[in-house]
Amino acid sequence: MENEDIIRALKDGNVPPEGTFEISVGRDSEILEFQNILENIKQGKGSAKFVEGKFGTGKSFLLKMIEENALENNFVVSKITITRDVPFNKFEEVYRKIVSTLKCKTGVSLQHIIERWINELKIAAMDETEDPLQQNHIVMDNIHMDLQSARNYSNSFVTAIESYYEASVNGDDEIANYAQAWLRCDDNIPFTVKRQFGVKGGVSKENVFDFLKALSAFISSIGYNGLVILIDEIEFIIMLANKNIRSTALDYVRYLYDECNLGNFEKTLFVMAGTDEFFENPEKGVPSYPALHQRIKDAIESEYKDFRKPIMKLEGFTNEDLDTLTRKILVLYSSVYGNEITDKFDDSLIVSIIDFYKEKSILTGSVQPRDYVRGVVSALDIVQQNPDKFDSGEKIIDLFDNLEWDNFDDELEIFE
């Protein structure tokens, strides 16, 4: 990704699509813990982890770092955001979103993953024999063997993949495309067509977790180290209409957590990120559902950090973190626009900017990364476009008096 694109994403308050490790600061312990978890996932374990933080503390940024790390280490990753269109109480919709956002190091989509796997089987078969008929038998045998673990959870899921291959070999592109569409949870497939590739119905609330386990088992059986599912903005559960619907959603969260701990999601990591309101609201959040709350709440209240507990809490940045972050932004900015502007941001100006944010911070005395980054990049852009107007650090620091400071309490009104 171009550095200019990263700068634009930071200014917009967004997570860059790539390159998060280049500008990451203050999250070494969190990343180390997730690296350890991924190592355990490779060995066949399942895990569910929660990330808690106020607005702007970098939850989405951390999820992106986990994604980049997982992809680099041969995991398949899906990252979804809970919204009105993807409500957690309708997990079949969550599953559809998971399937539609799958990616691996070499490409995007479940179709890419399936085709890459089949092509590898074809190449292996060609090494064994030059007879096309024998090659096809070898590929079919290996497909059947690789799909055995997934068949334990959903025979339909496996049948659709096998039918896709058979239709492709026979030149029946229509059935092959329908089989792929069914695996993507397309509802607009006629019953008569489904019957042609050996399936009935589709994903529903009754079978959705079987499909998810089948997907996970399939991915783990074809050479990947496992499946990583990143779920952002899980606090949307608080906005669901009534207590019964929220309880359904929270019970699904509890189910995922339990199934991972019981070993029923092998080689699978779920990371669910949300605001502190989700984890602490006694009426609508996790505390309102004891079956979940008792499992993931802190067993011991302590001033010391414990990154291995179920909920990983993100804090605002320290002065040292902000100093390091600022210097990384300046290096990135100078690579695009040169040193003439960034040289004006000397040590004393950096200290003044940090002090300004510390003084103005509205969140428990700590500075939130997103607000800080947006402010620094915005100031750099203004100075870069109006260099003759900012010939001193004092004039530059004056820019920050005009920043719009988000009111955290106002943002929380959406949950009331």
Could you explain the architecture of this structure?
With 416 residues, this protein is of the alpha/beta class. The chain has 3 domains: 27-108 and 225-313, Rossmann fold (3-Layer(aba) Sandwich), CATH 3.40.50; 110-196, no CATH class; 319-412, no CATH class. The protein is built from 21 helices and 7 strands. The strands form 2 sheets. Strands 2-5-6-1-7 form a 5-stranded parallel sheet, with helices on both faces. A two-stranded antiparallel ribbon has the order 3-4. α13 links the parallel β5 and β6 (268-274). α3 (28-42) crosses α4 (59-72), α6 crosses α7 and α18 (347-360) runs parallel beside α20 (393-399). The longest helix is centred in the first third of the chain and has 19 residues, at 110-128. Mean pLDDT is 90; it is low at 405-416.
Features:
single chain; 416 residues; alpha/beta; Rossmann fold; two-stranded antiparallel ribbon; 7 strands
Summarize this structure briefly.
The chain has 416 residues and is of the alpha/beta class.
Instruction: List the domain count as a whole number.
Output: 3
Determine the N-to-C terminus distance.
39 Å
Please give the radius of gyration in angstroms. Answer: 25 Å
Structural class: alpha/beta
Strand order in space, largest sheet: 2-5-6-1-7
The CATH topology label of the largest domain is: Rossmann fold
Instruction: Quickly count the helices.
Output: 21
Strand segment count: 7
Low-confidence regions: 405-416
CATH level-two architecture of the largest domain: 3-Layer(aba) Sandwich
Tell me what portion of residues adopts beta-strand conformation.
5-15%
Mean pLDDT level: 90
- CATH level-1 class of the largest domain: Alpha Beta
SSE pattern, N- to C-terminal: HHHEHEHEEHHHHHHHEHEHHEHHHHHH
Kindly report the oligomeric state of this protein: single chain
